[in-house]
Amino acid sequence: MTTEEAAVKAPRTSLHGQWSSRMAFVLAVTGSAVGLGNIWKFPYIAGQNGGGAFVIVYLFCVFLIGMPVMMSEILIGRRGRRNPVATMALLGEEEGSSKHWRLVGSMSVIGGILILSYYSVIAGWTVAYVEKSVTGSFVGRSPAEIASIFGTFTGNWVSVAVAHTIFMAINILVVARGVERGLEQAVKFMVPALLVLMLVLLGYAINSGHFAEGLAFMLTPNFDALTWDSVLVAMGQAFFTLSIGMGAVMAYGAYLPAETSITNASAAVVVADTMIALLAGLVIFPLVFANDLNPADGPGLVFVTLPLAFGQMSGGVVFATLFFVLLTFAAWTSAIGLMEPAVAWVVERFHRSRAQAALMIGGLIWALGFGTVLSFNVLAETRFFKGTIFDNIDHLTSNIMLPLGGVFITVFASWVMCRNSSAEELGGAGTVYSIWRFLARYLAPLAIIFVFLKAVGLLPEFSGA
Ligand code: PHE
To answer: Rounded to the nearest whole angstrom, what is the distance from the C-alpha of residue 32 to the centroid of ligand 1?
Structure first.
């Protein structure tokens, strides 16, 4: 046996440590999944894509495509126990295919960097909104006034840049501290607290007098209004919200103890994430209709509807502050997941300390973030291809890179890896395994490719569609 072969055969451990318990892993993946994607992005893109039918396609994508992709990604991560680039290269060779599978890992490192470059800017908005909440800026304001607070803030690139810088700085600090000390602590109270606060808001939305209208908008499907482009957006959102397709979950899987059930952990994460997104919709759409706002208004939707509600309810200052603090935390635990593949890669590949790697990668992301900072002010009118710089990064990552990553990940786990390897990771070849294997081998990759081709118009129309 060569030393390289011996290294492959030895029981693998990760250089970066391990989660202290099964619960810690579920919390960390949930923390990565639950974020701006659920509360900021889901409502506005559901609004832009007509509501009901979009939500149904989204749910279909989450459960039938997202869940098998997530399981594939975690099982690959745990088997390789390295950063996504090295894991894909290692397993590619070990399973008798090719080490070029590492390109899938490289795509994830790049994807994480690109996503975080805009994610951090929006997270910066939430940081700024904490300050606005504490100082009572929303109390008793009209819808027009609240909209102008948002417009004035995002219109000033300096304040947006400052908030983005603050957010990136706290991020780098946590990632530099490492897996257990950094990541676990942050998530433990954030998800439950966020859930409680969403329920308080739900109570308010139910009393807004427009709950039925909001509910109908979200749940009544009108498939005539659904384009293939919206189907692609729904699919992209399923990937984005579950943090899959770009190696975040793979990197986390590398720190997962061998005895934890990947299926149960994935199911818990998918259900929690979906509940929070639906809850966000149920809170926001009634408020949209109660205040005569437009559900298709775009990225500002949450930053206008919720402050309006807070401004009118008793105890609103406290609730608003709590809410934006929690949303900042939720974004933070997601941002950590976005940085992890790149940071783990730099640590392993260039033998840097975590602190150095976090600083290098964080600095790069911070600089790239200016593309998005300027997309809402100085360069707001500069449009190319899909719109502003922000629109293009968002489209490229969520709607192209993540689903494509998902195709490679499921194909790798279910076609390239031998049955024994995947069955071993998924706890034996029972019914659940067979269902996973079917979804991962056929449904997920084919559905993703089909939607892609449809969205770019490369497949013929069916009659009546
Ligand atoms: N899932 C996160 C959210 O919904 C975003 C994210 C995407 C985090 C990909 C990590 C990896 O906010």
So the answer is: 6
Ligand 1 pocket, mutate which of 338, 393, 400 (most atoms under 8 A from CB): 338
> What tens digit of pLDDT does each residue of 83-92 get?
999 999 999 9
Looking at residues 443-457, what average pLDDT do you find?
Answer: 94
The confidence score (pLDDT) of residue 197 equals 86
pLDDT at 2 over 50: no
Fold of 22-455: Amino acid/polyamine transporter I (1.20.1740)
State both tokens at 54: 């979009």
Task: Looking at the CA of residue 337, tell me the nearest atom of ligand 1.
Answer: 10
Q: How far is the CA of 258 from the centre of ligand 1 (A)?
A: 25
The domain locations on the chain are 22-455
Residue-wise pLDDT tens digits, 221-257: 989 889 999 999 999 999 999 999 999 999 889 888 8
pTM over 0.90: yes
